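Hello K.,

You asked for the raw outputs rather than the summary table, so here they are, unedited. I folded two proteins back to back in the same session to keep the settings identical. This is the first:
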Amino acid sequence: MTVRDLSMLPDDVRDAARVRENGEVEWPLADTPSAIDALAGAGRIVLGLDLRSYPDGNTREISWSAFEPNSDGVADIEEARQAAHAALARDNFAEYRPLAEWVLITWQ
């Protein structure tokens, strides 16, 4: 199990996070934009978002976005941040919103 170090995040963003037993970190949907900005502000590249809900104790997950570095393999922090925000603003997001109680954010 890899535990993510969240110490570089502001207290409010860190406090809103939920760290799963397997080390994954997720935020309530309402806190996700702040988490994306805080991760980027800390120099992290947001690689993807997964929408999650836990009906009846089961995990339901939809892979929602994946950020790809440019053709040289270089990832731009700001470009990744904007891509994550754009994914949350997609036209079809409302249809999947019931599955987005939590958002798993993957970063490097």
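The second followed immediately with the same parameters:
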Amino acid sequence: MNAPPTQIVELTEYATKSFPREDIPDSVAEALWRNHSAKVAVEFPSPKTAYKWELTAQGWVGYIPLSPELRLWLRPKVELSNLFHMLEYAYHLKSFIFLEGLFECQSLQEFYERLANVLAKRILNRGRQGFYRTYVPRTERLPYLRGRLEIPSLVRAPWDANMQCHYHEHTADVEENQILAWTLFTIARSGMCSERAMPAISRAHRALQGFVTLVPQGPEACTGRLYHRLNDDYRPLHALCRFFLEHSGPHHETGDRTMVPFLVDMARLFELFVAEWLAAHLPEGLELKPQESVAIGDGDTPGFVIDLVLYDTASGTARCVMDTKYKTPTAPSTEDIAQIVAYAEARGCQDVILIYPTELPRPLDATVGSIRIRSLAYSVDTDIEQSGLDLMHNLLNAGQSGGF
């Protein structure tokens, strides 16, 4: 008996789309509403919707496997080439030479699949050279002496033939390799890779499977790591792993199949991208610090996190506070203005900027007390490099006329 064909439901960011009631089973739509309401707004069939389903993507792009027969694709409103460019900067992929041809991809699925194939082939290549190994401390009871014997435990139980030993084992079952194994496992369960990429992914996973414990890993495990001459080539591997792990949602259990969504939070991506682009292009004498925490009072009161703070490297003083807003209002909201003014007061600077992904119909350039507030655009729907240069020009030159 042939399996029923897979149905693809496509949505674009913030665009509402209607579907006949019979196209989406009630149980599947309810699961989407319960599990992913923050990603997709679901209006159930009613007189209000002319008895149709109404689905609206909420600023996320990617893939949600609703069932083995029904898949939901959330497409970006920006051009795919610009989306890929943003991902390249945000995840530090630009410094690694493996992106040839990726901007020619026709879909997010193809981009995902090609990156997965790159990761698998690089892991296989590392396997041919030998996976990274190091000495790891172990403590266990053994029938023979290995390393250092724990005398007190022997005195307490002299009848026990096993001895408590402390030793160091030279092993490849370390976090560097566990990150690779878990990422490949996650990719294999996603359902996003076709027969073209799966053989390489399966081979790479088998190469690690024999000696690496499968331990769940989060994207935070891929950052802030120490590299040296023995494992420096793991740096691009972990950058790729971070990309896959950060966008892999909780898995679905559907029958006997496990499926993992792949979802990109466009607001978070926009924030990361702007931070990385500006940091890479700032003139000498300025330093950008992203995600800077600010405490309030004695620490019992919840503080806040500022998206971006621009510092003068010579004096260490804050020159400007910036906040990214992945939305397209007519003008900045009162809440956004109040928020960034509080950030400026906390950092003692007089120039604050709200950065939007497109030009606002009513841009802002005003003062609140001694604080100047501006809205600027990093337009992601045009030439993304030129948009960055325009933002930098407006950021620096406009500041000279009354900001910083």
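Confidence is low (pLDDT under 50) at residues 252-256, 399-403.

Happy to rerun anything if the numbers look odd on your end.

Regards,
P.
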